[in-house]
UniProtKB/TrEMBL annotation:
Transmembrane segments: 6-25
Signal peptide positions on this chain: none
PANTHER family per UniProt: NUCLEAR INHIBITOR OF PROTEIN PHOSPHATASE-1
Domain FHA: 83-132
InterPro entries named in the record: Cell_Proc_Reg/RNA_Proc, FHA_dom, SMAD_FHA_dom_sf
Lineage: superkingdom: Bacteria
SMART domains listed in its UniProt record: FHA
Protein name listed in UniProt: FHA domain-containing protein FhaB
Gene: fhaB
Any Pfam family matching the protein: FHA
């Protein structure tokens, strides 16, 4: 009887170990694909590049607007300098949020686009529910969550 209990315990631990490994791999996969903001295209499908004439007609972000949080309604005019977000007094957007780090995230211009990057914050930065791990382009009116504060780029 003791041998049967020992074998069932071993099998149970092995099952728990495999479930843990599967969970870790699933989380890593979702973080990698969510951070890049890209989906793997279906085989045989082609996406054409946006012509320069159409790209120039797209709206350009002029303002950073806080849509949720203690600073809701705050509007910052965007220029050529990066926007630093965090609890530090020298941040462009000073957050009074317990879930924000001192230097939480940076929003910086690259050409005509704006990119958000997490600066090693404790709670992470999210672009429309996807965790930001590298610099990611921010589309117009897409929510970016820093702690409990949500910001968007507006024309």
């Amino acid at each position: 009887m003791q041998g049967l209990i020992l074998q069932l315990t071993r099998a149970g631990f092995l099952l728990v170990l495999w479930l843990f490994v599967w969970g870790v791999l699933r989380t890593l996969r979702s973080d990698i694909y969510a951070a890049s903001g890209m989906r793997v295209p279906a085989r045989g499908s082609r996406k054409s590049a946006v012509p320069g004439a159409l790209r120039s007609k797209q709206k350009v972000a002029k303002y950073l607007v806080v849509t949720q949080g203690s600073l809701a309604g705050t509007r910052i005019t965007l220029g050529t300098q990066p926007v630093l977000m965090g609890r530090a007094d020298d941040s462009t957007l000073v957050l009074t949020d317990d879930y924000a780090s001192t230097r939480h995230a940076r929003l910086s211009p690259r050409g005509g686009d704006w990119y958000v990057e997490d600066l090693g914050s404790t709670n992470g930065t999210y672009l429309d529910r996807a965790k930001v791990t590298t610099a990611v382009r921010v589309p117009m009116a897409t929510p970016v969550r820093v702690g409990k504060t949500v910001i968007e780029l507006r024309p």
